[in-house]
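Internal tracking record. Fields below are filled automatically when a chain is submitted to the structure queue. Please do not edit lines marked as system-generated. If the sequence contains nonstandard residues, flag them in the REMARKS field before resubmitting.
Queue: standard
Priority: normal
Entity type: single polypeptide chain
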Amino acid sequence: EPNVQSTFLKGLKLARIIEVLEDMPSNEAADVLSLIPKKRADAILNSMKEEKAKKIREILQYPEESAGSMMYTEFIAVPKNYTAQQTINLLRRLKPVSEKIYHLYVVDEKMHLLGVLSIRALLTANPKKIISKFMRTRIVKVKSNTPKKDVANALTKYNLFVLPVVDKNNVLKGVVKADKVLEEIMPKSWKRKGLS
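SYSTEM-GENERATED OUTPUT FOLLOWS
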């Protein structure tokens, strides 16, 4: 609830606010910061770790009703020339925290989205095989300015849990998850009745 979050933040010291926001996914931290005065939000962002603040600022730039405003910037992008074994080693190093990582995104050196790789395909591939040889190149994706309802329609039409979000140049910016989209577009009256 916006009022609860705003009141909660007013009672915390700056150091604690920063700690809480840095532990949150960037899109959720952006949601929280959008509820407080811009001057205070800027002061908080200026005190945060540079990389995290950059991700949050980027999300805050998107229109509220767009895919960019609800995307997660925490995803796994893998260079196109990696082998299956190098990719598995990368995952071991990164130790992804989300239990819901279904896909890896294959990119070039400029982060252009080239393909999608399922964890299953990765684990069953020959360890020496280059991932660009077995990635899926027909990608269902949305642009960062795609309206939320169109994102929901794409998730439903293709029966997906996650969609990659790209900019106008096909640069991978994040992912939108079905549960977040549902939360965003569900009528407020349903949420109040305990159906969320």
